[in-house]
Automatic annotation (TrEMBL):
InterPro entries: RNaseH_sf (IPR036397). This is Tc1-like transposase DDE domain-containing protein. It comes from the Eukaryota. GO terms for molecular function: nucleic acid binding.
């Protein structure tokens, strides 16, 4: 804390925080696991491998809002976290792709920021409500495929094959596995 007599503004340290919470045994653990890779849930005691993991699972640390969450809440904006690196699960990515394609096809050369902004807004306006609904349906298809156990390529192929169906048929994973094996060059 800033009013500390000898160390104002300095971090106490994880061991000190654990001692203050009465977690004396955990304070003797290493600060963090090697390369920040804590053992999985099958470990002997997966929540007590390092000080960082123990603190991370303390209720007052776990329930803390991020800066982004508090900022969005203050402005009345809903925040949804999506899995990293899975743009196929996020319909907004397809909207951006559509708008970027339209923007690139625009032959106008922009000389000012205002002109560029107008062109970007015009490109975004070309994304129709019907397209957005289709992008959402495609994302839902990928989610269904992943839920059924398909990988990315199989899920994309299944989305193309079953595009007129409301959902994937039962046993889609086995069917796609057979189809992908059949299509592989020997």
């Amino acid at each position: 804390p800033d009013d500390h007599p000898t160390h104002p503004g300095e971090f106490k340290g994880m061991a000190q925080l654990l001692h203050e919470r009465g977690l004396h045994d955990e304070a003797n653990l290493p600060a963090q696991c090697k390369n920040f890779h804590c053992p999985g849930p099958k470990a002997k005691d997966p929540l007590k491998c390092c000080c960082r993991r123990v603190l991370f699972n303390q209720p007052d640390f776990a329930d803390t809002e991020t800066l982004l969450e508090s900022l969005c809440k203050a402005h009345g904006i809903g925040l949804i976290y999506l899995p990293k690196f899975h743009c196929e699960l996020n319909p907004i990515e397809r909207c951006w792709c559509h708008a970027k394609r339209v923007y690139r096809q625009n032959p106008k050369v922009t000389s000012t920021d205002e002109e560029m902004e107008r062109n970007v807004i015009a490109a975004l306006d070309t994304v129709s409500l019907l397209s957005i609904r289709r992008f959402c349906n495609t994302a839902i298809r990928f989610m269904d495929g992943y839920r059924e156990g398909l990988d990315g390529a199989s899920s994309a192929y299944a989305a193309k094959i079953y595009s007129s169906h409301r959902r994937y048929p039962e046993g889609i994973a086995a069917k796609m596995e057979q189809e992908m094996a059949r299509r592989k060059p020997r």
